[in-house]
Amino acid sequence: MLKVFKKKNSVFFVMVLLFLTKILGFLKLRTIAQLFGVSHELDIFWAAFTIPDMLFMILVAGSINAAVIPIFSDIFRKDGKDALNKFFNYLTLIIVFVSTLIALLFFIFTPQLTNFLIKSDGLQKVLNFAQRIEPGDFDLFVNLTRLMMLSPILLGASTLVTAYLQVRKQFFVTSLAPLFYNLSMIVGSWVLVSLFDMGVEGIAISAVIGSLLHLLVQLPKFKTYYDTKFKIGFKTLFKAFKHKKTRLALKLAIPRTIGIFGEEINTLINTLISFSLATGALSAYKFALSLHFFPINIIGGSIAQVALPNLTEQCDCKKEFSKTFNKAIQTSLFLVLPVVSIMAVLRLPLVRLAYGTGAFDWRATILTSWTLLLLSFSIIGQTVVQILLRAFYALKETWLPLVGIAIGILVNVSLAFLLTNFFSHYYDWRPILEQMFLQIRETNGQGFLEVLLSFIKDIARWSTNRGDSDLAVGGLSLSFSISYIVQTISLMLLLNRKEKIVTWTKTITPAVKKLFNAGLMALGMYFVFKLFDFQLDTTRTVSIIILSIITSAYGFLSYWLGSKVFGIEEISIIDNFIQSIKNNLLRRKKVDEIA
To answer: Using an 8 Å Cβ cutoff, are 412 and 480 in contact?
Structure first.
């Protein structure tokens, strides 16, 4: 009973810290939005940020969950602390050495890489983005990329410390690291951009400082567990590559690294495509991405983070493994689905409240909210995928999920090109859809078939050439959402080939109930939102907040009642939370009466 209580508290505290981190993340992006809006200069920053971020994700982030945490856990459980510390020493040396070497190569050859991205005939034919590159952008892009190459090295070491502490079940301090990273970005951006007028270079410097703080905040707690002398040098590095467990970690990490590489190429392609759209499209896409990551990181991320060590410990007991896996899936879906409904319905107020200040104008609000709407559907898939991948990694299977990831990447890349073109003709096909609905409603469908056939015929033309609508950026969001739905289904099928734990009764049926309930919640919220939208002056921030609170309150009430009606087990989470509040209030009342 005590063990269960501790696990629940671990998830709760991690969620609280991740929530605070995301709040700071919003403030970070709100600060950037206030300083730069969705400007060309900020587009250059996001494009330059892609390469260092890709380096970190490929070399470190992917392998941590895939190989490092399961092996850390296995070594600690079987061989003890000293063996774990020795392995940590070896692995850290390898990661930092490789990260530094590759970062140095990128640092040296950034001008050549930039020149290729701008002047490549092949990229020009597909993306046609050089028309938006100005002469001064070349040096800015190179300087930003070189400056931010320090981040992968610092974050690489810090992420390994995070993995070490998580195996020791120290989730609180590891959740503080990204919080300090965001805090550095907020303070640094204001000081360096506003006071010292450094432009987007100020944001880049803040990111490097944040990466350093990400490491430093974890070191005091880390030192209480790691009491072994950290050895460095080429001799130790040579031993590290020969170590049996290190070779196993690298072997397990290779397929996940390949998968991350594919995902990062995917991200790079999305970045390049968005950079070929209207000015500010890339920034709008990045702002919307940050908003949509809020529930993924807080709910899915925290549950998956706490579940991985438990899944690793239970990998030899199928019944317990299946129970932990399905509990994680259903809990995360129950908590994330109402947030998805709110995000889809209240996208415009959310964007205005999050970023609507300073240089972030009405056009930026429309572009970001449109992108957020189509991105919100990917939240479900991304939340489930995090847990599915952890299940594979706990089973020490890293090649099989690579197939599902590859399928998702291919779907996204293919649809990103087609859908951005299609949505760039938004004002061409939108009137046709309205005409079709009008024919169904008022003329009993007369002439509907002819218009439908004409519409289908024109889809191919709209999807293969670029129009001039700003809403083209929505194509990236929709392709992203569809790809994660496909990836989720693929990974479920592949996991069942390894271990049959995805079942109709424990996984699919409860998930469908939750999806249906969330759909009813969103439908009701839409009507409530429209009703009060006409009654309130939404040009004022206070009115937007009131509208959002009323609509959200109705949504949560609807979701709670629906959960009761459909017999959704996870409703006990809310019921227990409400009961604990009541108990605390009664306890305080008794204390006051006695006093």
So the answer is: yes
